[in-house]
Amino acid sequence: MTGYSFAIFDAAIGRCGIAWGPRGINAVQLPMGNEEKTRGRIRQRYADIAEAPPTAEVQSAIEGIVELLAGKPNDLADIVLDLEGVPEFHRGVYDIARSIPPGQTLTYGDIAKRLGGVELSRDVGQALGRNPCPIVVPCHRVLAAGGKPGGFSANGGVVTKLKMLAIEGAVVNHTPSLFD
After folding, report:
1. 74 domain-assigned
2. For 111-125, what is the mean pLDDT?
3. Residue 1 has what pLDDT?
4. Which of 5, 17, 112, 124 is the S-S candidate for 52 at Cβ 3.0 to 4.6 Å?
């Protein structure tokens, strides 16, 4: 990906990564257990990407992400994303998810209804599972029916999702089960 770069940064949940190109942020990588695994995951997703110091815009995005993960209510709405190559339906899901304020949640069904019908709930879940920019596109704020956490594809799964929601002060109806 010529012209694309990434950086690793510290946040309250661990060492995260961010990738960008000439038109905006392409990806945010949640911690993968250690910095080398996080770095490796970015390189796996984007061949030939270079590690580089963040531009001013990217540094501003990093600062917003760090603030949000430290419990400050930053909606990250000012971060410009480059979602070229992302299917249109997914972009619609991400636009709605980005409208959810910190500490609030919607369900997969809520988003599906806004996009045409509750029968799209599974498609919404699949789109969120492929979200290239978690935190900026706050897929952690989207819950299953009944306020249950639902899935989360990031390292740590639902535990990470619940940690991020707790940082934001969101209320989640969660009773641990054998399947968590």
Report:
1. no
2. 95
3. 52
4. 5
Of the residues 19, 30, 124, 139, which is catalytic? 139
Domain assignment of residue 174, yes or no: no
* Residue 123 belongs to domain spanning: 88-168
Cβ-proximal residues to 14 (8 Å cutoff; 6+ apart), any chain: 30, 31, 38
∠99-105-108 over CA atoms, to 5°? Answer: 90
- Same domain, yes or no: 152 and 92: yes
Question: 106 and 50 in one domain?
Answer: no
**pTM check: above 0.85:** yes
- Catalytic annotation present for 16: no
Number of domains in the chain: 2
pLDDT at 179: 43
Report the distance separating Cα 42 and Cα 28, nearest Å: 9
Lookup: tokens for 76: 């990250």
- The token pair at 66 is 């760090």
The C-alpha angle 81, 87, 89, rounded to 5 degrees, equals 100
Average of pLDDT values for 7-35?
94
Which residue has 């917003």 as its token pair?
64
Segment holding 7, helix H or strand E = strand 5-11
Q: 43, 36 in Cβ contact below 8 A?
A: no
